[in-house]
Write a structure and sequence with these properties.
The protein is mostly helical and about 60 residues long. The protein has one domain. It is about 60% helix and about 0% strand. The protein contains 2 helices and no strands.
């Protein structure tokens, strides 16, 4: 029982930091998804594109 109370107190104490971290991670995920699915009109040179690129570089 003590363990659950300690965890609950810790979560309440660090709620703002956890929310900011979750917002940051979601932003990175959304940005990565938007970058991988961008239209073919926007091109990058093969030097600047990462190895894990999903679309073909022309």
């Amino acid at each position: 029982m003590k363990r659950g109370q300690r965890l609950r107190r810790w979560l309440v104490r660090h709620r703002m930091h956890l929310n900011l971290a979750a917002l940051f991670v979601c932003g990175l995920w959304a940005g990565g998804l938007a970058w991988m699915t961008r239209p073919d009109d926007i091109g990058m040179t093969s030097v600047a594109s990462p190895i894990c690129c999903f679309r073909a570089v022309k």
